[in-house]
């Protein structure tokens, strides 16, 4: 029995006990009244220790290193020489991509206005840095995004009427705008590789939750991200119906997508999103909530709600990723500068805490394909609100998947 099946069963049994309530009142919070621990989870590794040389608190047996810093050329581990790529300002959303030689690529967005884009670091099978390079430029405020099953990075512009760009993660500067994913204040995107659909969040106080269905999927399993149907979620009694947008790519003086469907359900500042075995997990920063959407029965509910949780240690919810064994890792924008884990049975506990960088936020958490490394950034680095262009990207070594 997989961890995700256990989680889904627990979610359904919890909701069966309490019943679905509409979003107009309150949705069931699975984490609020339960403290069931999965002792196979990361929690069994123990509490956070004292800050290490990087100022990072980790469980026993974990270690950290700095792999990139804004304005500095990334250094190769293989020969100690500097690459040509200077790490970008305000590193944000990221993901890991396995490569044929056993290595992987970590991508990272640059959330800066009018001069955004994305960069990448290439690792060999031993986890050594081999190269670093740009994969997107000339865009604006690239916040989060998402990985595709066919191995590309979707980088999202967090600006009004912003777009999504598909990037080749191994070739410098090879990217294309994907018009099918709409024009709005994009935050993140997750692909459902079973039903071949994409789900997207919107960083607005009255934002929507979106679903994209491509017009076609090629023989290699690649979705057409230019031609398809973009819909918004309408929740009723804990279940979602999907309503097509009138105009998914509005111009500057046309009605924004979030205002086109009168009864579209509103989410308070949509942030990170991730897919895992039939479940979509996403966060909303305005109300400090972590949501789940079951693609099988189209039900919607709460995995975590700070206002009602018995362990409200997670705040400033932002980027999210899910381990292969079903642990939801949520990065904090501010808060306590933590990456917090929500285990398969609803247990909530910190995995990483960055000290003395209170003016920053944690971004881009991603687990390497071998499950032994976690990457993330402190977006503005040093603890100085007047010098916020010193983003730092870290690698944590440990065990992140069983």
Q: What does this protein look like?
A:
Residues 1-5 and 14-41 have low confidence and may be disordered. The strands form seven sheets. A five-stranded antiparallel β-sheet has the order 1-25-24-23-22, with no helix packed on it. By secondary structure, it is mostly beta strands. The longest helix is centred in the N-terminal third of the chain and has 16 residues, at 3-18. The chain has one domain (3-397): TolB, C-terminal domain (Neuraminidase), CATH 2.120.10. It has one helix at residues 3-18; strands at 56-57, 63-69, 73-75, 82-86, 91-98, 104-110, 116-123, 129-139, 142-147, 152-157, 164-168, 175-177, 186-192, 197-202, 209-214, 228-236, 239-244, 270-276, 279-284, 289-294, 299-305, 317-322, 328-332, 338-342, 348-354, 362-367, 373-378, 392-397. The protein has one helix and 28 strands. β26 (362-367) and β27 form a beta hairpin. 4% of the residues lie in helices and 43% in strands.
Structure summarized in a few sentences:
This protein is 4% helix and 43% strand. The chain is mainly beta and 402 residues long.
Q: In terms of topology, how is this protein built?
A:
Elements: H1 3-18, E1 56-57, E2 63-69, E3 73-75, E4 82-86, E5 91-98, E6 104-110, E7 116-123, E8 129-139, E9 142-147, E10 152-157, E11 164-168, E12 175-177, E13 186-192, E14 197-202, E15 209-214, E16 228-236, E17 239-244, E18 270-276, E19 279-284, E20 289-294, E21 299-305, E22 317-322, E23 328-332, E24 338-342, E25 348-354, E26 362-367, E27 373-378, E28 392-397
Antiparallel strand pairs: 1-25, 2-28, 3-4, 5-6, 6-7, 7-8, 9-10, 10-11, 11-12, 13-14, 14-15, 15-16, 16-17, 18-19, 19-20, 20-21, 22-23, 23-24, 24-25, 26-27, 27-28
């Amino acid at each position: 029995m997989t961890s995700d099946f256990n989680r889904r069963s627990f979610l359904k049994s919890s909701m069966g006990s309490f019943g679905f309530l509409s979003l107009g009142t309150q949705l069931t919070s699975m984490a609020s009244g339960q403290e069931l621990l999965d002792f196979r989870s990361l929690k069994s590794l123990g509490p956070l220790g004292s800050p290490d040389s990087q100022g990072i608190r980790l469980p026993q047996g974990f270690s950290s290193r700095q792999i990139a810093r804004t304005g500095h050329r990334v250094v190769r581990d293989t020969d100690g020489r500097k690459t040509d790529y200077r790490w970008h300002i305000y590193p944000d959303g990221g993901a890991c991509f396995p490569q044929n030689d056993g290595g992987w690529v970590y991508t990272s967005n640059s959330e800066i206005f009018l001069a955004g884009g994305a960069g990448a670091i290439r690792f060999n099978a031993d986890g050594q840095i081999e190269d670093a390079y740009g994969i997107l430029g000339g865009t604006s405020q690239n916040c989060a995004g998402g990985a595709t099953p066919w191995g590309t990075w979707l980088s999202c512009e967090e600006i009004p009427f912003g777009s999504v760009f598909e990037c080749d993660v191994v070739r410098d500067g090879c990217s294309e705008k994907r018009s099918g994913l709409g024009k709005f204040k994009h935050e993140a995107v997750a692909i459902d590789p079973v039903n071949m659909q994409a789900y997207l969040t919107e960083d607005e106080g009255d934002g929507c939750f979106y679903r994209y269905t491509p017009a076609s999927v090629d023989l290699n399993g690649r979705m057409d991200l230019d031609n398809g149907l973009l819909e918004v979620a309408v929740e009723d009694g804990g279940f979602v119906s999907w309503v097509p947008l009138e105009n998914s790519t509005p111009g500057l003086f046309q009605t924004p997508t979030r205002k086109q469907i009168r009864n579209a359900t509103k989410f308070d500042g949509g942030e990170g999103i991730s897919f895992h075995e039939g479940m979509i997990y996403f966060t909303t920063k305005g109300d400090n909530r972590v949501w789940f959407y079951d693609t099988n029965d189209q039900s919607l509910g709460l995995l975590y709600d700070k206002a009602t949780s018995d362990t409200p240690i997670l705040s400033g919810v932002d980027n999210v990723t899910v381990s292969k064994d079903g642990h939801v890792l949520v990065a904090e924008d501010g808060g306590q500068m933590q990456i917090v884990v929500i285990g398969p049975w609803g247990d909530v506990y910190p995995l990483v805490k960055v000290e003395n960088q209170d003016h920053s936020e944690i971004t881009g958490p991603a687990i390497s394909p071998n499950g032994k490394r976690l990457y993330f950034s402190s977006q503005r680095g040093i603890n100085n609100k007047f010098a916020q262009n010193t983003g730092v990207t870290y690698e944590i070594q440990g065990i992140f998947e069983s």
